[in-house]
Amino acid sequence: MTDKKTVTSRRGMLKGAAVAAGTMSVPMVAMAQTTTLRFQSTWPSKDIFHEYAQDFAKKVNDMAGGRLKIEVLPAGSVVPAFQLLDAVAKGTLDGGHGVVAYWYGKNSALALWGSGPGYGMDANMVLAWHKYGGGKALMEEIYKGLNLDVVSYLNGPMPTQPLGWFKKPVSKVTDMKGLKFRTVGLAVDVFTDMGLAVNPLPGGEIVPALDRGLIDAAEFNNASSDRVLGFPDVAKNCMLQSFHQCNEQFEILFNKTKLNALPAELRAVIEYAAEASSADMSWKAIDRNSKDYIELKKAGIKFYKTPDAILRQQLASWDKTVAKKSTENPMFKKVLDSQKAFAERAGQWNNDYSVDFKMAYNHYFAKKR
Fold this sequence. Notes:
Structural class: alpha/beta
Helix content: 40-55%
Distance between the termini: 93 Å
Oligomer: single chain
Mean pLDDT: 91
Number of domains: 2
Shape: globular
CATH architecture of the largest domain: 3-Layer(aba) Sandwich
Order of helices and strands: HEHEHEHHEEEHEHEHHEEHHEHHH
């Protein structure tokens, strides 16, 4: 038998052990290390695009429970915008936020993620091709061939971008010939074929160049970015609708070695945060772009629909551009063929199934406009 005194003594020992374990758990949690990753975007700090980069980082930081922290710097903090890819690959930066078209000079095929008409696909459909139609594997093949130690997550389907900001509105193809124009990616080749003199400036340099007369017209992206970057201060006419970048998306980059050094659960957090921020960015863009569009109108900016003749010329120039690039670069043709096959299948489904939302909009709001 065990006497009462012994039982009490054992209970005391167990209680003491529990208390000791409890006190030990506090410093153990405190000792858990936080891995900090330094990111840079390719966007000025005031641009909504930089905000999207911060939104992604916040999702990762919130879900990582203190084990991982991404700090996001604006363009130029460590390297110029167009040098981001190399900086991430070399480990100068742990990661970054930009667009694939900026790496056009590395391999022309990269610009197919976002430049041109996409064979009738919008940005979300291009993302569908990327994830489920073979695009991701092709991009990995390109980066591997360039010896770039990076992992890429595409996300954030962008709305159709305007043709751009002009000192005078353009009504026909000949109005554009000879203009000094800013764009990036394969749009450089398309507009060059259309007779423009193209300068691929990064986002933060466009408005100063317009203001100083170094360029005559320029495109960037959307009402929110264009407004905050100062386009309304240097040009009063914006031409809406274009095929040059009607299906672009963002790219979140990581240094591959540093990413692979993270535990599997943190790598999963990053992957799913990229997908979550893609959806959130789409919703935020609709809200903010529509509000800023109204504010730009209030400020006296004149908006015009790009004439169909210019849109048709874009398609014709695109066909010439991709035919030439396909003969120069086998990988370009490989990506193009994959994209085209997916677009033919998905586009038929989308066009046959989608209702005309403009009909419903006009039914309710046409008289108010």
